[in-house]
Amino acid sequence: MIKRFADIVFKWYCRNDYYSDIRGDLEENYLRHRERHSLRISDLLYLREILLLFRPSIIGFNYSSNKSAMFFNYLKIAFRNLKKQKSYTSINVLGLSTGIVSLFFILIFIESEFSYDVHHQEIDRFYRVETDLVLNGEPLKFSTTSPGMRERILEKMPEVEVATRIVGFLGISQNILRVDDRSFTESEGFLADPNFFELFSYPITYGDPSSMLTNPQSIALSQTLSEKMFDEKDPVGEVISIINDYGSSDYTITGVYDNEEVNSHMNPAFVCSMNSGAIGKYVVGNDRLVGNYFLFTYVRLRPDTDPIAAGKKIQSSIAEHVEKAENSHTFEPVRDIYLYSQSQNESGIGGDIRYIYIMITIAIMILSIACINFANMATAQASKRAKEIGVRKTFGAERRMIIAQFLGEATVITSVALIVSLVAILLVAPSYSSFTGKEVSPTMIWEKSGLLLAIGFFTSILAGSYPSFYLASLKVMRILAGQTTGSSGSSLVRKGLVVFQFVVGVLLIVGSMTTIRQLDFIQSKPLGFTATNQLVIPLQSSEVISELEKVKTAFSQVPGVKKVAGVSYTPAQYVLSDNRYKTTPTNADKEGVVIRQNDVDFQLIETLGIEVLAGRTFDRNMVGDLESAVVLNEAAVQTLGKTNSEIVNQQIYTEEGGEIISYKVIGVVADFHSQSLHRPISPYLFAMRASRDVSSVIVTIDSDGYQAIIEGIEAQWDGLFPTLSFEFHFLDEQLKALYQKDRKFAQIIVLFTAVALILCLIGIFGLTSFTVQQSLKEISIRKVLGASIRNIYTSFAIKFLLLVAIAALISIPTGIVVMNKWLELFAYHIEPGLTTVVIPIFLIVGATLAVISYKIFFAARVNPSVILRGD
Amino acid sequence: MKKFQLGEFEEIVLLTVAVLDQEAYGFGIKEEIESRLERSVSIGALQSALRRMEKKGYLTSRKGEGSTERGGRPKLFFQITAYGMKALDYNKNVRLDLWNSIPASVSNSLSYD
Questions:
Q1: Which of residues A625 and A699 earns the better pLDDT score?
Q2: Is A55 part of the contact surface with chain B (CB cutoff 8 Å)?
Q3: Residue B70 is nearest to which of A28, A52, A58, comparing CB atoms?
Q4: Enclosing H/E stretch for A561
Q5: CA distances to A180, A382, A850, B9, B18 from A90, in Å
Q6: pLDDT tens-digit series, residues A165-175
Q7: Is the pLDDT of residue B1 over 50?
Q8: Distances (CA, A) of A768 to A502, A773, A846, A855
Q9: Residue A62 pLDDT exceeds 60
Q10: How many CB atoms lie within 10 A of CB A234?
């Protein structure tokens, strides 16, 4: 098999006069090898000889064959044609390379999006236990479980080979890591069981992964963090302190794992041993199987386990322990988390498979526009090339040779386009890297050259096949008799392709307009609270929180500060805390409705400027407000089945740690968007507790001279806590960050839409120039017979506008469908009217008219005598 | 005097052709070099050397008979020309010259056995 293939290759490249002798030697050599080696080895050795024979002195193409001789002729003609028609060539090369470059970047982007978590060992058996709940009649999916899950499944389910628990520092947005007297702030820190690295495989820089997290108070650092804190030094054995709302505690560094080479849905900056104080202790001592869904449980299942059946089995293992459990569980493949997870409390910002689908669609659209341009112009050229084909055919060219010729020409153009693309890719790569945050180095582009070639090959086939088959099918008699205008069939296909282009163009504009408008909508939608001129100042450590009153007083003294109030979740944060509430004390734990709870401080509602609908807000002078008062939002009141006036001054009940606790509802506020607009408003309450369990303060400041105000606040902070560095955020910017993914996506869509539109216009420009070129005589004769420029213009423009009209008919309904699909991703979205579809069509019509007018006016102004002189 | 262009590998091939006299054809030469020099020779390297030297005029070739071993393909026998002999001779002398110019001190102090 290999030998036969090698023979064909050899015969193809070997000089004819050397062939039979060398072949003889090869045969003899092969026989000798067969005496000593197996067939396979001999074949491979034979192939090696053939490869080594491929050298200039042996290679010689067979000139005696007519076909190969014509090959060179085709190549020559192709180059001559390309040189002769410079504008045609450059339009094609420009179009194709734009298509190729776009496709290339989209493909490498997608490739890297799919590269998440593939580095973990046994990734096929690596799962996360997720929790499904139905809250207030709405299904909810959590990526976390109750703390007792790991022990339970290890005990009851033999299918589970390894299981590890991972928990974040609950309710803490930042940890301060201190070594000697230097401090570093990190948000992505976790505690994990000692077998964490058994499941999560990272390249290890220092330390032994199997024992890194065994000892109490041990910590493993990521490469990034280790380099930040210790440069290139081996930090193992060093002691660092972690300071956060829980207080300060010391950890010993036991290792460094390399997080930079790999992509993972979970990218911890550091991992501490679960055998550590505070949360660690709480987790280890907590065996709840229901509720407290705050930690991640990752497992490796035994080979050949069906994850779906195993997931169902969790229920029965829990049911033995808890009667009537509210939660059900599934095993979700870790490989799919990054792109597919829809869970509420994901550990990092994930990708989104829907965006990937959209990007693939755009890439295909762009490349197809480029190919259509190519095909259209090539067939339009038919009349120019028709005589050549006629003569070739008369002299005995076969149909397939003509096809080969024109496919070859397509390949030549694509090759040129490929070279142009390569240069363009190298130029664009840095901006791509900074935009996506994914690095692209020239070596990586070089490694991907295979992909580039594949795209090129595919493109030339796609772009070249229709014109070549069409040109090859021309009838000799008709061509040579002078009937050069293409058959009506071909012009129909051409018109069809143009219509298709218009449709794609309109759809892309519709898409990007909707995207932009939706993002505008999100950014300008009244959120129900004041987001501007609000500073969020994280309180960082328990030391600061215990001094809350002092902090507030100090900040209030700064001129320009209007209001100050503490809060545990700012409106930009996901509210992790919830509980079941009921208006009667019995069975609150089972029958209550779930309400998210945010522990706040006096004045918070006023600071945020949330509208009060009934009752009042927390008042320092009212006895009892500090003990058990809550303010509900309207949605909570409705789920509790009451009206605003009914609920005020009533008690609501919940269960905390097995005790029924009652809260007095003192007021109702209007619904406000406490989460991103991807999610609907949920039942929500502000609670006031004696402990004042807050994590940040929100400070309303004057819009004038905010620089000075912030400096004033910082000075106050530094006076109170000289060891902690002051930090602040603007609330509106934090809110903006919620839509970062959507904004990126919108930018991508707009960018590629622009690319696609330019390609469309290039295509139309090419086609018009060609049609006009062909009709110069017609235009001249019309002029001679008295037609005005306007008459001529209308007669041409109508042809194109008709195509646009057909395209509009197709794209209006499709556009509306596509748009609504995308908007469904947002719980709150614009209602796209007909204008969103009509405006793009006007845009396209306008652009087309501009392009064709330019061409036609020039043609129409030519003096007829110049054109008609020769006839 | 005109220089003779002869690479190291070409020289070996040319010598082997001379050694084999009337029996020098592609595969035979390959086998001979492989057994004498204990190095493997690819057909590609050998054939391109042979053709190159034929063009330079160091070698002539004649068609022989086919054999079943070779799938019925004729052998192409090579023979060294007088010009080829001259090239070999020139090369040999250049080397001898160099050998003779090595100072005694070097050859004595660096003897190996």
A1: A699
A2: yes
A3: A28
A4: strand A561-567
A5: 64, 18, 21, 50, 60
A6: 888 876 666 77
A7: no
A8: 15, 8, 15, 7
A9: no
A10: 14
Residue A660 has pLDDT above 70, yes or no: yes
Task: For residue A395, count other CB atoms closer than 10 A to its CB.
Answer: 7
Task: Please state, in angstroms and rounded to a whole number, the distance separating the CA atoms of residues A45 and A34.
Answer: 10
DSSP labels for A727-753?
--EEHHHHHHHTTHHHHHHHHHHHHHH
CB contact set of A825 (below 8 Å; sequence gap of 6+): A354, A678
- Pairwise CB contact (< 8 Å): A27 & B70: yes
A776-784 vs A789-823: helix crossing angle, rounded to 10: 130
**Minimal-distance CA residue of chain B relative to A48:** B42
State the average pLDDT for chain A.
81
Helices (H), A235-352: 279-284, 307-319, 337-340
* Residue in B46, B52, B67, B73 to test binding to A, most A beta-carbons within 10 Å: B73
Spatial contact of B59 and B14, defined as CB atoms under 8 Å apart: yes
Q: How far apart are CA A603 and CA A546, in angstroms?
A: 18
Is A815 part of a structural domain of the chain?
Answer: yes
**A25, A49, A57 ranked by CB distance to B48: nearest:** A57
Locus of tokens 């004769």: A781
pLDDT digits (tens, 9 = 90+) for A463-515: 888 888 887 887 777 777 765 555 555 677 778 888 888 888 888 888 888 88
Average pLDDT over residues A527-544: 82
Domain span holding position A714: 534-732
Phi, psi of B63 (to 5 degrees): -80, 135
Amino acid at A598: N
> Pairing relation of β-strands A629-633 and A659-669?
parallel
Whether residue A192 has pLDDT greater than 80: yes
Q: Which has the higher per-residue pLDDT, B63 or A577?
A: B63
**CA-based max dimension of chain A:** 110
Structure tokens at A583: 């208006």
Q: Identify the pLDDT of residue B96.
A: 92
Domain ranges, ordered by start, for chain B: 8-102
Helix (H) or strand (E) holding A186: strand A182-186
Q: How distant is the Cα of A394 from the closest Cα of chain B, in angstroms?
A: 40
* Strands, E assignment, B3-55: none
* Cα A692 off chain centre by: 40
Hey, which CATH number is domain B8-102, 3.40.50.1360, 2.60.260.20, 1.10.10.10, 3.40.50.2300? 1.10.10.10
Average pLDDT over residues A528-552: 83
What are the backbone dihedrals phi and psi of residue A250, each rounded to the nearest 5 degrees, phi first? -95, 145
- Give me the helices (H) in A655-739, please: 706-720, 731-737
Q: Which phi and psi (to 5°) does residue A105 adopt?
A: -65, -40
Buried b / exposed e over A681-718, threshold 16 CB at 10 Å, is: bbbbbbbbbeebbbbbbbbbbeeeeeeebbebbbebbe
The better pLDDT of the pair A741, A666 is held by: A666
In terms of domains, do A424 and A521 share one?
A: no
pLDDT for res A67? 60
d(C-alpha A280, C-alpha A353), whole Å? 34
Residues 6+ apart with CB under 8 A from A239: A179, A250, A251, A252, A253
Is A673 among the domain residues? Answer: yes
pLDDT in tens, A88-120: 788 888 888 888 888 888 888 888 888 888 888
Select the highest-mean-pLDDT range: A351-365, A383-397, A723-737, B26-40.
Answer: B26-40
Q: Does A86 touch chain B (CB under 8 A)?
A: no
Phi first, then psi, for residue A864 (nearest 5°) are -55, -35
Asked if residue A346 belongs to a domain, the reply is no
Which of B31, B47, B66 is facing A22, going by the closest CB pair? Answer: B47
Domain final residue pick, A732, A748, A776: A732
What is the domain count for chain A?
5
d(CA A576, CA A134) in angstroms, rounded, equals 16
Residue A347 domain-assigned?
Answer: no
